[in-house]
Amino acid sequence: MKRKMLAARLDLADKISMISARRGTLYDYVNDVLEQAIRAEDLGLTLRDVLDDRWMIKTARDAGFTVIPEKIMYDLTESAYKRVGKEKMTGLWYETGQWYGRYYEDLKKFETSVRRYFWDVSEFRISLEGKDTVLTCLSSKFSATYTELFGKFLEGALNALGYSLSQGEVSKGIINLRFVKSLDK
Amino acid sequence: MSEPDSRKHKLIRAPSDLVSKLSQNASRQGKTLYSYVSEIFEQATRAYEMKRSLKEILDNYEILEIPKEAGTIYTPRDVLDYLIQKTYGENGGEMVQLWYQTGKWYGMYLKERFEKPLEIFLRLLQEGRWDLNEVTMNRDKGKVEFRCVSAFIPQERTLLLQNFIEGAMHSLGYMTREKNCFKGIIRLKFSQ
Fold first, then answer.
1. Is A66 in contact with B129 (CB distance < 8 Å)?
2. Of A56, A104, B77, B188, which sits most exposed with the smallest number of CB within 10 A?
3. In a domain, A165, yes or no
4. Contact state of B80 with A80 under an 8 Å Cβ cutoff
């Protein structure tokens, strides 16, 4: 088979050499990588798009998310709510939200992750209105109980990020929370 | 990205037909071959960091949207396990049924959508969203054996997930022959 020389950035070429050393020859590895890049193009994609989507699975897992059929999750929530009561359940979701607030450490990152992972949320936005930070979350799938708990989750996250709740409206499928930046943060 | 500086690049040998195809793709996108190849190598190293090959990632691309389309959602793992722990004692039987029935629906969905639903189901379990570290499937004629291992899943969730898999497999036309379940480890044998 005819061969040609390809110029590649030194640092990347070194990395590729290092990876290939664990898998076979450099030539075979480069061949495979280039074939996959062409395959992606033929599908109308770029490798970056494909990898970005795949990366999401890893970041979700690292952040402690797991998938579950939505019906099971909603049913479980209703049963547990009846069993352990409002106080414990809201406490659990609030604390979990606090954990995520600390985990992401940044309001924008938290907002992005909610949009990315919570597919059952149809609209989610955090905006500034004067000195207030306003959070809106809509989902036609949420029950009244699930909305209340998810609202607590969001409140917990924003509290951990240095925002205090000043006003809130929560009703089935609709969460509207208004926050002010805490003075000590 | 600018053209290569001879001190900062390396020459790598590649099949000539692939290089020609890459050149065409690069020029179609208004990029130099050098920058185009650098992008490809960047993504290859990213894939390596994910402990996957590019081929494997591309093979699985078509199934990335399935969990969303099939009505699964992301939830915090700790919340899920707390909810299961608090309800399982009293509602265990009902929960097992619910997971089984949901699995059945999932299996039917895959059967309707894909030519090879069993392979797709296996890849979905393997891709990492179900908290499973290792999923293997052995097929021998009409027999299928599943082995799933997880470091994260408590006993109750393991049992429920086992029922979910069983439900899906029943929809795919398999009958359970044997099942074993222990915290984080599922072994299931089916026959057609």
1. yes
2. A56
3. yes
4. no
The distance of A135 to chain B (nearest Cα, Å) reads 20
Residue A5 inside a domain? The answer is no
Instruction: Determine the Cα–Cα distance for residues A122 and A139; give it in Å rounded to an integer.
Output: 5
Question: In chain B, which ranges are continuous DSSP H helix?
Answer: 16-28, 33-49, 54-59, 66-69, 77-113, 117-126, 155-171
Residues of chain A with pLDDT under 50: none
Cβ of B9 and A64 within 8 Å? no
Q: Do B41 and A14 touch (CB under 8 A)?
A: no
Answer yes or no: do A26 and A87 share one domain.
Answer: no
Contacts across the A-B interface (CB distance below 8 Å)? 230
Contact B82 A92 (CB under 8 A): yes
Same domain, A40 and A66: no
Contact B74 A118 (CB under 8 A): yes
Our CA dihedral for B121, B123, B125, B127, rounded to 10 degrees, sits at -150
Considering the domain architecture, whether residues A94 and A140 belong to the same structural domain is answered as yes
How much is the pTM? 0.82
Q: Which residues of chain A lie closer than 8 angstroms to B95, CB-CB? A: 76
Same domain, A75 and A30: no
> Residues A14-65: pLDDT tens digits?
999 999 988 889 999 999 999 999 999 888 888 888 898 888 888 898 999 9
- Co-location of A26 and A84 in the same domain: no
The answer to whether position A15 is within a domain reads yes
Domain interval for residue A128: 62-181
Within-domain flag for A146? yes
* Separation of alpha carbons B142 and B124, rounded Å: 21
